[in-house]
């Protein structure tokens, strides 16, 4: 499946130009769909400051949440790569702040994830481990693990993530699902509690039995820790996209 070319096409929506996969099944797991706009007849006034709309006070829809605002409350145009917009788009104050924070992930963490890190990988309950390079695919849909063998995990298969640090063991209560990862500060780049590995639990398509993948930082622990920290930040976006 991962070898299928991911063609892109330019589409125009009421919100602006978007560059999207030709096949919707190949959307990035971090992406969000466009919201339904609140109908004009249902918003006679700004949904932020309550100023009534008239000939002089025009209404604008936030491209991220779809709600109606006056120009003052929805004046910022901010990049929104999660919805595949080509250019920055109009967003309300609250949404623009969220989008600006997400840009750190798109500008920095995605590059770290696609650059990869080296880990000692154990599949399932096997006692055999292999040193492998783990990286995120260019379409953001797969984790590629390459060593003497090749293995891949589709992000949509992952059900939970167990983060290991230099101060923790697998037996400790450090299991994080996407829900609990949302506000977690458990991992930080260069922090006191540096990530040293993770356990992924996932269900491959067509399988009823969950599988386990264990990854522990190899010799370049700094790069591996940065990769794990980026994965931690990406987990929040994955959860939000699934919950949409």
TrEMBL record:
What CDD domains does this protein map onto? Answer: FYVE_ZF21 (cd15727)
**What positions does the domain FYVE-type occupy?**
40-100
Record InterPro entries: FYVE-type_Zinc_Finger, ZFYVE21_C, ZFYVE21_C_sf, Znf_FYVE, Znf_FYVE-rel, Znf_FYVE_PHD, Znf_RING/FYVE/PHD
Query: What GO molecular function terms would the record report?
Result: zinc ion binding
| Signal peptide feature range | none
Give the UniProt keywords, A-Z.
Metal-binding, Zinc, Zinc-finger
What's the protein called, per UniProt? FYVE-type domain-containing protein
Origin species = Coregonus suidteri
Q: What is the lineage of its organism?
A: Eukaryota, Metazoa, Chordata, Craniata, Vertebrata
